[in-house]
Amino acid sequence: MRHQRLLIQIEGAILAAFAVALEYIPHTVGPSAIEVSFGIIPIVIYSLRRGAVPGMIAAFIWGTLDLILRGLSSGSVLNVWQGLFEFTVAFIVVGLAGLCQHQVQTSIRQHRKVKTLTLLWSAALIANFAKYFCHFIAGVVYWGSYAPKGMNPWYYSLVINGGSFIVTFILTGIVACVLFAMLPTIYLPKDMAFDQQAAKS
């Protein structure tokens, strides 16, 4: 059990670092402020492998590293509260994709491809909606003054964060489904207790 817990923690730390590295890929869509968050993808995959709690811990590490390495130097932090909200809460909730872990793993074992694909898209939706809803709120509360003159801050935040949500959600869903088609066992780590119980039964 202790070995398994350590393995999960190491795996989470590695994927969190990978998520940070992916954020250095240019990810602005066109001339707008709409951005694709590539880092969400490995966190969603990890959350579906290990569950919501490990996923949220890995997402917290990702957010903390992103704050230190990118946020503080890029002007993305306006004050302490905004920084904590957008680089902790908005990142942690990505791990909620792990709420679909048991259903996804059971569906894969039962070879129910259509159901698995639906669940993968659902997990991608949960993770992305939760993250960008936080950014939407922050956009109104903290970034509203940066809206173009005459534009309602709510509308401004909805356009920017809504666009980022749609693009990132679609990318996350596609990658999750492609990985399932190519390597379904990526969602089924053999060291988990779930697998051990299944083997005994």
* Terminal Cα span: 19 Å
How many helices does DSSP assign? 8
Total of domains: 1
Name the overall outline. globular
Oligomerization state: single chain
Strand tally, please? 0
Helix-strand pattern: HHHHHHHH
Protein name: Thiamine transporter ThiT
Organism: Latilactobacillus fuchuensis
InterPro entries: Thia_Transptr_ThiT (IPR012651)
Keywords: Membrane, Transmembrane, Transmembrane helix
Question: Could you characterize what this model shows?
Answer:
InterPro entries: Thia_Transptr_ThiT. It holds the Pfam family Thia_YuaJ. This is Thiamine transporter ThiT. By secondary structure, the chain is mostly helical. It has one domain: Arp2/3 complex 21 kDa subunit ARPC3 (Orthogonal Bundle), CATH 1.10.1760.20. It is 72% helix and 0% strand. The chain has 8 helices and no strands. Helix 1 (2-22) packs parallel to helix 3 (52-74), helix 2 crosses helix 5 and helix 3 (52-74) packs antiparallel against helix 4 (80-92). The longest helix is centred in the C-terminal third of the chain and has 30 residues, at 153-182. It is globular and about 55 Å long. The relative contact order is 0.13. Residues 193-201 have low confidence and may be disordered.
